From TrEMBL, chains A, B:
<dbReference type="InterPro" id="IPR036318">
    <property type="entry name" value="FAD-bd_PCMH-like_sf"/>
</dbReference>
<dbReference type="InterPro" id="IPR016164">
    <property type="entry name" value="FAD-linked_Oxase-like_C"/>
</dbReference>
<keyword id="KW-0285">Flavoprotein</keyword>
<protein>
    <submittedName>
        <fullName>FAD-binding protein</fullName>
    </submittedName>
</protein>
<dbReference type="InterPro" id="IPR006094">
    <property type="entry name" value="Oxid_FAD_bind_N"/>
</dbReference>
<keyword id="KW-0560">Oxidoreductase</keyword>
<keyword id="KW-0274">FAD</keyword>
<dbReference type="GO" id="GO:0071949">
    <property type="term" value="F:FAD binding"/>
</dbReference>
<dbReference type="GO" id="GO:0016491">
    <property type="term" value="F:oxidoreductase activity"/>
</dbReference>
<dbReference type="InterPro" id="IPR016169">
    <property type="entry name" value="FAD-bd_PCMH_sub2"/>
</dbReference>
<dbReference type="InterPro" id="IPR004113">
    <property type="entry name" value="FAD-bd_oxidored_4_C"/>
</dbReference>
<dbReference type="Pfam" id="PF02913">
    <property type="entry name" value="FAD-oxidase_C"/>
</dbReference>
<dbReference type="InterPro" id="IPR016166">
    <property type="entry name" value="FAD-bd_PCMH"/>
</dbReference>
<dbReference type="InterPro" id="IPR016171">
    <property type="entry name" value="Vanillyl_alc_oxidase_C-sub2"/>
</dbReference>
<dbReference type="Pfam" id="PF01565">
    <property type="entry name" value="FAD_binding_4"/>
</dbReference>
<dbReference type="InterPro" id="IPR051914">
    <property type="entry name" value="FAD-linked_OxidoTrans_Type4"/>
</dbReference>
<feature type="domain" description="FAD-binding PCMH-type">
    <location>
        <begin position="12"/>
        <end position="191"/>
    </location>
</feature>
Length: 429, 429
């Protein structure tokens, strides 16, 4: 059962009573009714790729895995939608959609191992968010099993609809604390006609890189990806892979465009105008893959250095350079190695806090550094988590992020839908 | 007080106890606290342009008008957002944004008289939705006064954020039944660099017009407007304004593009390929205005014929032609004149049911026709209301549209946030 008790974080799980490997709606209803009658907590889970401890088992719980509900029930090409079960792997849905000339846009970095159900539960983001929005923006309707085993349907197959409260939006991102998603109708989009063009730009200062990102977004260009990799991350990658890093490089921007709403030459021009030392576009697929690797190598490069606390703050776009500066300052003062990559177009940063491999969880000075980073994000008008969720790991900061009044409303809604408090207790709110 | 007791519908208001013309947050809190203590129902309202009876007064209520809270507190050009009070007229915000090269995208047809607060309360749509989404897609954060006078803040200034439940999305579209929105942080977007290009196409059959709309959306073109006007509407406009209507025209499509993601020639080509009798693009502003007038004249042309029941069903895009055929069938069988215009790119139809000017509300055979139209929309996988809201007028169909289980969840949420049931009673859910 241990494999089903944890996600990708260091959050220490309790001991589950049992694991249910649901195969259909009936299994989920049976499990929820049983748990309701016997007052057993339920921890739903998808692929277990979460980064906030949202699927961490609690003592005596039923772990309810949706990972075996993997049917893509329908792809409706003319209506640009799919009806899927929660265990469908995110990238599998995208591949299935592409057979119809469509795509499933949300692409968390975990998309080859994460499930749609988990993506919905956490309102997952990804690289393409900057153009296509987060998972909630692709959720049209849900089938949900409530805490007492009742089954409801929300939303539907239309792109607009205001019949009643936005229950779809409420369940998306609720991290399994309000119900279990057993099916979803999700929006597909026409796949881009041309392969993407990739742009790489290097900058001598963070401010210049931030300026380039702001100029790109500010001028209404619509890149399909706009990532920033900071100096600490570049150094870690260079130490490992020898990328011939110019020591004067403070940050790189990697961008992609997949359509005429964002000519690559305009991306290059904005970077050059902002003072890039180097900026060029490539249509070569191998070269594009190599450039994207620079972004993808951030996590393994950090993990090579030790255990990692992966964080996920989001600030208003204009505050991105300031936020990175604050992170660098925290790293210096606290003596913590922090590698930062950012979905720059969304102001969403992932600082990776490296700590000793021998430790099961971040030591106090790393926790203190993370605490300072959260506080800085909130001070800059930002939030604790842009796309990973609250889980168990971020709950200590909820009062600072939301305020007592808003937290009380969260609890009122939780109490209304799960009065016994059995759905994924101790998570999200 | 009568002027503050009703919206644009025939819904018969009760007699309010008083009208509060709030000027600031303190006024709203004072009113809500007083109403809470004295158990007086509160009916919040904005511009009174609603089309579902959502702002209709009930007997003995406090009407709480937000129309005098008109400050645009902030426009943050680099973060593409504005902070506004609820009484700001929708078009005024758009104009203010344009001074910074930005736009406020949601544009309900009432945008010169409707308020942002009302737009948020109903999750208003509009013509530009097809490209830029509905009001909820532009809502980043809210300040809300709850039923007992408590003030909370939801969301924030970031484009991504998963800290807690999506309360912003929940309050948007809740039609004043959960709280009163006293400020909003809304997303602005870069204004298009070029003036729009307008396309007109005429079709001999509805199927061909539907095929053109499907082809445009299916190929990933992103028109900023894609409207369909049916034969009944064209005839009514022709009788009034003599537009030299070809009697063989079953429908026209009016489209606009505002960017390189949707070349006008591609719009024309899709219409021609689908069998348009005429299809052409115009960059002339006066001509574009004349073409859009064809769409805008639908309402006055219908009102010229009598009183109107304005409806608002939404179906999956591919079912649009079938839905129009069903409406025509209902009109024939029931002997009711129904004019239909549609936001074709979204599958959102507005059938206008004409009835005798001497009647205060639709007579039974018109109600029966509307009932058949709602039933048809639900049968086609659609919904009761795409953008106008439920108000009082659509509540009789909620069971058919949502099912008892989903309605129960609505009531549980309402009960949690407004246990005394004082917020806009009898509306929305």
């Amino acid at each position: 059962m241990d494999a089903y008790a944890r996600d990708q974080t260091y959050a220490v799980p309790g001991a589950p009573l049992a694991v249910v490997l649901a195969r259909d709606l009936g299994d989920v209803v049976a499990a929820m009714e049983w748990a309701h009658v016997h007052r057993v907590p339920v921890v739903p889970r998808g692929g277990g790729s979460g980064l906030a401890g949202g699927a961490t088992a609690v003592d005596g719980c039923l772990v309810l895995s949706l990972a075996r509900m993997t049917a893509i029930r329908e792809i409706a090409p003319r209506d640009h939608l799919a009806v899927v079960e929660p265990g469908v792997i995110t990238a599998d849905l995208d591949r299935a959609a592409r057979e119809h000339g469509l795509m499933y846009a949300p692409d968390p970095s975990s998309h080859e191992i994460s499930t749609i159900g988990g993506n919905l539960a956490t309102n997952a983001g990804g690289l393409r968010c900057v153009k296509y929005g987060v998972t909630r923006d692709s959720a049209l309707g849900l089938e949900v099993v409530l805490a007492d085993g009742r089954v409801i349907r929300t939303g539907g197959r239309t792109v607009k609809g205001v019949t009643g409260y936005d229950l779809t939006g409420l369940f998306v991102g609720s991290e399994g604390t309000l119900g279990v998603i057993t099916a979803a109708t999700v929006r597909l989009r026409p796949a881009p006609a041309e392969p993407p063009v990739t742009v790489l730009a290097t900058f001598g200062t963070l401010a210049a890189a931030g300026e380039a990102a702001a100029a790109i977004m500010g001028d209404g260009l619509r890149p399909s990806l706009l990532e920033l990799v900071d100096r600490a991350t570049l150094r870690a990658i260079d130490e490992w892979r020898r990328i011939d890093l110019d020591p004067d490089t403070a940050a790189v921007i990697i961008a992609q465009t997949d359509g005429p709403d964002c000519p690559a030459r305009e991306l290059v021009r904005r970077c050059t105008d902002a003072g890039a030392g180097f900026a060029a576009a490539s249509t070569d697929a191998a070269e594009a893959a190599a450039l994207l690797d620079l972004r993808r190598l951030a996590y393994p490069a950090a993990e090579r250095l030790g255990n990692c606390l992966v964080e996920d703050v989001c600030v208003p776009r204009s505050r991105l350079p300031e936020m990175i500066r604050r992170i660098e300052d925290v790293a210096d003062r606290r003596g913590v190695r922090i590698l930062t990559v950012a979905h720059a177009g969304d102001g969403n940063l992932h600082p990776l806090f490296v700590f000793d491999r021998g430790l099961a969880e971040p030591p106090p000075h790393v926790q203190a550094a993370a605490d300072e980073v959260f506080t800085a994000a909130i001070e800059l008008g930002g939030t604790l988590t842009g796309e990973h969720g609250v889980g168990v790991l971020k709950r200590p900061w909820l009062d600072a992020a939301l305020g007592a009044g808003t937290r009380a409303v969260h609890r009122q809604i939780k109490q209304a839908l799960d009065p016994s408090g059995l759905m994924n207790p101790g998570k999200a709110i």
